[in-house]
């Protein structure tokens, strides 16, 4: 499968890559897009949004799926540079280790847009803009709900945390934002925290281990819906009632997560919108023309209680 994807990424075409503004003389634009993978419902919705928006805006999209591996993303970016695409967009699986390949793109005069996830490069001239959520704020929102929900009790609150992919921006930032808020009150204790790699299967597996070694779990904080949904299976398998015996907070608000919230199995969801495609294509058109774009474009997002999920579900797009 990987060979097929790499081959697709290596198919030659493209027009830009030289001079100040890239793009073909006829105004057509080719974008090379390196996606993280297909690890979650969020990711599936994000891929669909990018592919549909490219079509609608007349941008030719070269798409590759990195299967959650940084080396695959670096290979894909290098192949896009070789093909002289007009613009490269990617959602970096982890934050570190991008400087070399981003310098190669800059040397080839191909603009790069970060979408969804950030890199930790000190040199911000390596990319034109970063479009995506404020993951620290998402973590804070999760923490605030927890603090408010337990504000009438002085008993200790034992929390387990299912982290996203190790080293990824959403895992680092959602952990940090949550810790910042709950850290103000010592009754909140994170008694176990481990990665579930943003997948349902890993979420279930790690939650099973948490339940075996910790008999008194009050709260699960999962960095995405998929891990939360896997954990629900583990909790039910252990004879406990998700949403009651163990309160659950997740991030994303994909349909399956929202259904579990409406059903009372999840208690609160912090939204993270995957519908980045249209904004990404607008930004791509601008950077290809050499126009100035904001260094950071933050996605607008909300939160959902169980009642709000019931109302929102019928019109939920993803
Ligand atoms: O980077 C966004 C995160 O990646 C989503 O919250 C998660 O579901 C996905 O895998």
TrEMBL record:
**Predominant location of this chain?**
other
For this UniProt record, the keywords arranged alphabetically read as follows: Signal
Tell me where on the tree of life, at the top rank, the source sits: Bacteria
Give the subcellular location: Cell envelope
Which protein, by its recorded name, is this?
Answer: ABC transporter substrate-binding protein
Q: Which family does it belong to?
A: Belongs to the bacterial solute-binding protein 2 family.
Q: Does the keyword Signal apply?
A: yes
For this protein, the record's InterPro entries field holds: Peripla_BP_I, SBP_2_dom
Instruction: List residues traversing the bilayer.
Output: none
Q: Which PANTHER family match?
A: D-ALLOSE-BINDING PERIPLASMIC PROTEIN-RELATED, GALACTOFURANOSE-BINDING PROTEIN YTFQ
* Species of provenance: Nonomuraea recticatena
- Which residue intervals define the domain Periplasmic binding protein in the entry? 33-291
Q: Which Pfam families match?
A: Peripla_BP_4
């Amino acid at each position: 499968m990987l060979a097929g994807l790499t081959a697709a990424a290596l198919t030659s075409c493209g027009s830009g890559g030289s001079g100040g503004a890239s793009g073909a003389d006829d105004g057509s634009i080719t974008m090379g897009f390196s996606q993280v993978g297909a690890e979650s419902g969020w990711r599936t919705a994000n891929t669909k949004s990018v592919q549909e928006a490219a079509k609608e805006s007349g941008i030719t999209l070269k798409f590759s799926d990195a299967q959650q591996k940084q080396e695959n993303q670096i290979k894909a970016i290098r192949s896009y540079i070789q093909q002289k695409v007009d613009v490269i967009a990617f959602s970096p699986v982890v934050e570190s280790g991008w400087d070399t390949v981003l310098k190669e793109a800059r040397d080839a005069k191909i603009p790069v847009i970060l979408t969804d996830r950030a890199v930790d490069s000190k040199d911000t001239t390596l990319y034109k803009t970063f479009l995506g959520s404020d993951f620290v704020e998402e973590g804070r929102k999760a923490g605030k709900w927890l603090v408010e929900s337990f504000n009438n009790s002085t008993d200790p609150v034992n929390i387990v945390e299912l982290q996203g992919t190790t080293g990824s921006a959403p895992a680092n930032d959602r952990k940090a934002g949550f810790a910042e808020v709950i850290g103000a009150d010592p009754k909140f204790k994170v008694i176990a925290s481990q990665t579930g790699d943003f997948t349902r299967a890993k979420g279930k597996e790690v939650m099973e281990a948490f339940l075996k070694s910790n008999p008194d779990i009050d709260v699960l904080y999962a960095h995405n819906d998929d891990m939360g949904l896997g954990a629900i299976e583990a909790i039910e398998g252990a004879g406990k009632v998700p949403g009651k015996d163990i309160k659950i907070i997740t991030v994303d608000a994909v349909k399956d997560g929202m259904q579990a919230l409406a059903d009372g199995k999840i208690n609160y969801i912090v939204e993270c919108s995957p519908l980045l495609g249209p904004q990404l294509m607008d930004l791509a058109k601008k950077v290809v023309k050499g126009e100035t774009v904001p260094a950071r474009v933050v996605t607008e997002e909300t939160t959902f209680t169980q009642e709000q999920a019931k109302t929102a579900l019928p019109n939920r797009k993803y």
